[in-house]
Amino acid sequence: MPSRTTRRERTTAALAGLVVVAGIATAGVALADGEAETTDVARQTHAEQQVEGTPCSISAQACVDLETQRAWLIENGAVVHGPVPIASGGAGQETPIGHSFRVYRKDAEHTSGEFTTPEGQPSPMPFSVFFADGGVAFHGGDRDRASAGCVKLDLDQAQRFFSGLEVGDKVQVLDASTERDERDERDERARLTTR
Q1: CA 128 to chain centre
Q2: Beta strand pairing status for 98-102 and 170-174?
Q3: How many CA atoms lie within 13 A of 77 on its CB side?
Q4: pTM of the full structure
Q5: 64 and 82 in contact (C-beta within 8 Å)?
Q6: Which of 100, 156, 171, 187 fits a disulfide with 131 by CB distance 3.0 to 4.6 angstroms?
Q7: Where are the beta strands (DSSP E) in the chain?
Q8: Number of alpha helices (DSSP H) and beta strands (DSSP E) in the chain
Q9: pLDDT digits (tens, 9 = 90+) for 108-165
């Protein structure tokens, strides 16, 4: 089985190829561990102030830290709810990292088109808030099991995220250590250029 880094590198290369061929711009892609994201969106995000206690910038309305498996709701650059525990994607179905995902759909009674219950019924995904390609969403679910890329929350927290987010709101899904390193590198470059 390929390593996580190799899989991420292939994903990044494939997405970059799509951008060139289709002439579209991406808001960020999942990158190899330790590799700095150099998109304009990432640079803009790193130039913004961070929301205290989170790895995310003040322009986000929802923040997910994959490293600590926590999430927050943010309003006007301040935490209004959280941190709350989450479960993210498992091996081979990792939750995508990005600096500017946008909520594009909400469905309080959504059911999976891919997964079924032991009884053969579509698996429930209550209070789904979709924000990334491939049907990646915040939703209620069993946090003891990794997801297929979604951000699973306890049911009451899923309901809170459902009511707290609107279509168009920015969602950031990050790794706190990587964000800290990238911000430190940016600050160091800025110090060197002002000398």
Answers
A1: 14
A2: antiparallel
A3: 5
A4: 0.77
A5: no
A6: 171
A7: 62-65, 70-75, 78-85, 98-102, 105-107, 111-116, 122-124, 128-132, 136-140, 151-153, 170-174
A8: 4, 11
A9: 999 998 888 889 999 999 999 999 999 999 999 999 988 999 999 999 999 999 999 9
**Strands across the sheet with 70-75, in order?**
78-85, 70-75, 62-65, 170-174, 98-102
Assigned token pair, 98: 């990005």
Cα–Cα–Cα angle for 80, 82, 85, nearest 5°?
Answer: 160
> Could you count the other beta carbons within 10 Å of the beta carbon of residue 194?
6
What residue has token string 């990292």? Answer: 97
| Beta carbons of 182 and 46 less than 8 angstroms apart | yes
Separation of alpha carbons 171 and 113, rounded Å: 23
